[in-house]
Amino acid sequence: MLVGAVAALIAVAFGAFGAHGLRGRMSPDMLAVFETAVRYQMYHSFAILITALALARFDGWLIRTAGWLFTAGIVLFSGSLYALALTGMTRLGAITPIGGLAFLAGWACFIVAAI
Q: Which of the ends of the chain has fewer CB neighbours closer than 10 A, N or C?
């Protein structure tokens, strides 16, 4: 629960920073990249919180793995997009799909656990 709550707090702070501190300071394309990072971080913060609640009722390695994969996805997917938007280093975009795969693997673990 702590990881999900901290990730959500950071997503809200970054969202406000993007809306108020970055508008007009970066291109609309890079601002859209930053906003995508915030959106996926918030979605998966909620996923981590749901995972924590599920673990309280159905303890299992698949649910636990899903939570860690969601966390890894936030770091890799959202983190690389934040870095790309703020620095313009396009090489960081190569990390983004790995984070996306972590999100997908997390959801797959959650689905299998639910079945």
A: C
* Tens-place pLDDT, residues 76-88: 999 999 999 999 8
Q: Is the dihedral of CA 45, 107, 32, 95 positive or negative?
A: positive
Q: Greatest CA separation found in the chain? A: 48
Inter-residue contact 53 to 69 (CB < 8 Å)? no
**CB neighbours of 90 closer than 8 A, spacing ≥ 6?**
84
* The model's pTM: 0.93
Residue in 53, 79, 67, 54 with CA at minimum distance from that of residue 105: 67
Identity of the amino acid at 17: F
Distances (CA, A) of 43 to 24, 60, 74, 89, 105: 26, 22, 10, 25, 15
